[in-house]
Amino acid sequence: MGTVQFESIEDIRDEFKQDGDFHQEYNTVKDVINTIISRGNEEHVYAFSDEQLSLSSLDSDLLNLDIDDLGVDDKYEDDIIYIVDQANIVNYYYNREITEEIQEEIDEDKMIRGIDDDD
Description:
Largest sheet: none
Mean pLDDT: 89
Distance between the termini: 33 Å
Radius of gyration: 15 Å
Number of strands: 0
Helix content: 40-55%
Order of helices and strands: HHHHHH
Number of helices: 6
Number of domains: 1
């Protein structure tokens, strides 16, 4: 399965809507970020990247901005690039096939973080 490379928040929104994993409208930047973080918290993603957690601390005006209004102001250009970069990282790990070697790395990460599957 090929991994989609996002170029904009609109691309991310469209892909999430198409996936159908999450039953919601993606109207605001925060809606998209919540799904990026949710996917990033999956163990097969989190073991390799946790930087997506920082997305929730972006400027609240940006988070509440309607996605269709993003092109109006370049004020958030750097933040938008960062969001797209994080979405691409999460998407890569989220969609890749989990081999035995990758599963061993995931298990090791969970052990280091003190996560027990039996809990």
